[in-house]
Structures are given as C-alpha cells and as structure tokens.
Amino acid sequence: MAYYRPPGPPPDPALVRSLTQQQHEMRQRVRHEPLPQEPRLIAGCDSSFPTPDTILSVFVVLKFPSLELVEKVYNYGPVDMPYVPGFLSFREAPNVIHAFAKLQHKPDVIMVDGHGIAHPRRMGIAAHLGVLLDMPTFGVAKQKLTGIFQEPGIARGSITELLDAKSGELIGEVIRSKDKVLPLFVSPGHRCDQATATRLTLACLKGYKLPEPTRLADHWAEEFKKEVR
DNA sequence: GCGACAG
DNA sequence: ATCTTGTCGC
Fold first, then answer.
1. Which residues of A are annotated as a binding site for Mg(2+)?
2. How far: A112 CA to C6 C1' (Å)?
3. Is A35 part of any domain?
4. What share of chain A is helix, strand, coil (3-state, %, to 5)?
C-alpha cells in the first residue's frame, strides 16, 4: 500500500475542468444492460509504460467459456497527458483504441484493467472505452478509487457491494478471486450490467488472483515490452 | 480542516 | 504504471 505519495507536478486547473466536462458528457451516453447473448469471445485489455513517455497497450481475445487464447495484439506510441487520478482514460485510451483496431477477431465483450462506473463521475476507463468503441465493457481493478465497502470473506468467491459513500448507489462489487488475496473491484462499463460483469469475472478465474483476460493481457504486455526496447 | 486518490 | 531483494506462507 502507498501510505505516502510524494507530491507530483500539480495538474493544470483549466485542463481538469475541461476533462471533467468531457466525462460528464460521455456519461450521458453510457448504458447498462445485459449482453444481447452469451459471449463467444471475450477480450482482455491492459497497458504498460516501457519508458515514462511511451505507452504499450495490449488486447488478448479468448474463446468463452473455454478461455482458449485466439489472438493477441499491441500498439506502442507516445503519451502526452500526465497521470491524474480520475482521468486515467485520457492518458491511455488513444493508444488502446489503436490496439483494438488491429484485432482480426472482434470480441463480444471487453474486460478492462481498471474501473468501469466505480469512479467519481461514473466514467472509469472501462466506461470511457465502451463509449468510444461502442462495445460492451466492464472493469476489473486491483485498487479502489472511490466508494465504501465491507471486506468480503477470505474464501474465494466471497462478494460484497461497493457503494457510493454519499448516495448509497451500487457502483461495483468487491470480489475475493482467490483465497486470502486482496479482492478485486468489478464494475460495469458500457452496454453491460453489474450481474454480467461479476458473472463473467468469476467464469474467467483459473486459480489466479486475476481473471484470464486481464491476466494474459498483463502477461503479454510484459513480453511485448521486450520487443520495443 | 483532514484524508483519499484506478493505472 | 515503474524502480527493486529477500522473504514468508501455502
């Protein structure tokens, strides 16, 4: 845990206002609903940074529910936007979109490494990408960004709700994906609902803390990183 | 006023 | 996210 974080360069107030406005507008386009049909292909998405100013985004596509890997692609490019909590998508989405375009097999749903609506303005990167790609998406994050919750039981499969501290609104679910490991934060992005996000996450567990789509995207991000260095 | 703060 | 060794527990 990061108990203390040294102060980084202060984010430009004007930029933050602009990005906040963009999120409010995009939020109006988000829809929550079940998938039209059971997915045949599920994708995993993740990004890494080979150097401080370059980003490498990865997409893996797996058959569902067998979880057999059918494709993996990546895109590598420069990053301009700095990291500001709550505005991660503006820094990563552009490159992620380019990686998605390289896929030969378009998935039925995308599992994103990060939050869906479990975000201050309900626009985490999973929701953001869902709107831009007009694809069903949901987020699986390793750390909480916002909300309150009770610690789920230590047994794999235990689940508790992630609620907005002020309104009490359900913004996600906290899932113990493996015995005794820190829980995951799962929330719908776009064209997906909480029940589906949680169900698919559980269906993609293979004994590791991370579900296969995200775990493999993470793995290949490390492998591809060697190629661009 | 005091914390919290995805990747 | 990224930089990093040894170490604890199943």
1. 46, 113
2. 33
3. no
4. 30, 25, 45
